[in-house]
Amino acid sequence: MTAVTTPLPPVLAGAVPLAHVEREGTVESVHLGTLATCDAGGRIAGRGDPHVGFLPRSALKPVQAVAMLRAGLDLDGELLALACASHSGEPDHVAGVGAILTGAGLGADALGNTPDLPLDADAAAAARAAGTAPAPLLQNCSGKHAAMLATCAAAGWPVAGYLDPSHPLQQLVRETVADLTGVVPHVTTVDGCGAPLFGSTPAGLARAFSRIATAPAGTPEGRVAAAMRTHPWWVGGTGRAVTRLALAVPGLVAKDGAEGVLAAALPDGRAFAITVLDGSPRPLPVLAADVLEGFGAGTPELAAAGRVDVLGHGRPVGSVRPMTD
Prior knowledge:
Elements: H1 10-13, E1 16-23, E2 26-38, E3 44-47, H2 61-70, H3 77-83, H4 91-103, H5 121-129, H6 142-155, H7 168-181, E4 188-190, E5 196-198, H8 202-213, H9 220-230, H10 232-235, H11 241-248, E6 253-257, E7 261-265, E8 271-276, H12 284-294, H13 300-305, E9 309-312, E10 315-322
Antiparallel strand pairs: 1-2, 1-10, 2-3, 2-8, 4-5, 6-7, 7-8, 9-10
């Protein structure tokens, strides 16, 4: 029989080893992926193919928030950070989502995202103990969805059908993704929360974060950057890796996404985007800390936030390490 060779998907062909898992001196697994960096002048470099098409998942939320502000959304501070969040569903997060909806004259029944329990283990346990069923309000994307609904109310667009890719809101989001990333979305699909998800590249995502991080105060991009920098707990939650990274580096704008995605930028415009091929978030703090240290932004807090231990019988016996070691 003649062997049939199937070409590798571009995202696989463009991947390289980024991190390895070491247990008492033995490497037991390796995470492959792509790393794109953007310097202060907008030049792209990285490891693997930074121009490969991929799905940015929730790391795209700050870009979506810029689109909403361009359409007239009136949020800033904690609630704007919540609009950019994959929040943990802790009580203040849930109350904040309710405040966004109330400000738009809407209730939780208008939310179209997927019902779920909170990401935070304690909040989820409390919900189960109270007999609370999974609900859109508790799901980690409810801040973004509440903001989308508030944007529709502010712009005079229909609230019904706000998740349809042909809705004016989603058309504006698509245009904003293309504008900030410099990449026309190669695919439109459905994210886990039900919102349209627009494909990009790691280079494009890094470029978008660079533009957000360096935008003038008061612009939609500048407002998003200010909210995320000032209120990193609202972007993630207690103990979350993205929140710890943002707290560790002054001025950092950072956002994670499902399937092993993380992007961040410093105030001077240096930025990066990571996609891990196996979809695991495990190496993301390690890789982010390594890039930021290379940028000269290392701090003791960053070293702690970027450490991922490997446990043996409940104690550290190794760690996840960047392949640059």
